[in-house]
Request: fold
Amino acid sequence: MAPTADAAKYAAEREVGTPVKTATSVRTWELDRTPDLIDLVSAARDNGHEVLLIERPMPDAVSIAALGKAFDIVAAKGGVALEDANGEVVDFEAGNDKLLAASRLWRRLCESLAGPIAVGGFAYRPDRVPGGPWSGFPSLLLRVPELAVTRVRGRTHATAMTAEAESLLELTTTGVRAPAARRLEVTPVRNTVAWTAAVGSAAARLRAGDAEKVVLAREVLARGDGVVSAAMVARSLRAAYPSCFTYLITGADGTAFAGASPELLVRRSGDRAFSQPMAGSVARGATDAEDERLARQLEDSAKDALEHRVVSEFVVEAMRPFARSVSAREPEVVRFTNIQHLATSVTAELTHPPADALELAAALHPTPAVGGWPREAADELIDELEGLERGWYAGAVGWIDAHGDGEFAVALRCGLLWEDGARLYAGVGVMPDSDPARELEETELKFKALLTALV
Reply:
């Protein structure tokens, strides 16, 4: 999916700054029904279409089902390329920062189209081509779908890039399905003794001054005794974690990336931006009283308070170059189905013209919540100690529209799915005084979000 030779050739021949010419006519209308967005993407995928889904059933949240492909902005050597529905490169934007290059290319495409929306995301390391199990995913993909179905505040609209795209609304699931998985065999890719030793090594390196914080992730394989349906997983996650961002993105190799993220990287609406970084975690209690006790324990934890402060202060400072003012509330405990986090709400009043959602994401990603601090030192420790290919785990998923408004969630509580199994990912923030055994317990807690959705 990285058309390097074609992209370079097109960039050399093309007059820089010229909007790409398209023959696409965009039509948007309100639907008189309220389709289930997971049903839509499931039917489209069964009929051979690539699909993307970002869903959050909150009152003012935007949910989008993206069916088929009209254009892709995709990572390429030396920048990002714009591909048409046939995979032909029709534009290219050079730049080492893939997110900023994508922002520039997106603005140029929007000059040629009326009201498009792009859905997608990017890897933890957008500057690297994902390898191993992530070979079906580029390091960045933003898709203008043939048909986008968008829901906000109870109203549903469809945006079609062609007249034929409207037929995607009528697709149904096809064929006889194989039996669904009822049991899972779960095995760590790296044994727990080696992983906890890596956490201990990381903490020692932090005490020696190599960095302030580093996030280390684990990977487990879950193999089922039947089919693990991506749509079923997304539906289970939506039901179990209604306040999270549910997402489903299909890879070019037939895999699917799915998850339920609690964490907003950035939302941009007009001249205002909002972020809610999270760091510091504890389990939910079996009773209200235990819930409160665990929440107070989290608030009183010096380790978690320091870990969180590193993240929240980074987000505030990263927003400042784009804003007239930036304000941050005091940290609070936010609760999800099986876990509690420390979270800080950060609001920025943007200068004019306001940076778009991709520019803001480029400034924020990766936050210390998923990488560490300082960035370069933390990434060196991750490369040395983590021992896995993150791919899109701890990257971001979301959308952007023609006005530059958009929303990106950190890609957490996630797995890379195939027909009868999944690779699941969970990470922890390691500090100088981290207890490896406690960090291992935290990953197990986070894995439950996906494991309970697989069967």
Observations:
- The first strand starts at residue 27 and ends at 30.
- Confidence is low (pLDDT under 50) at residues 1-17.
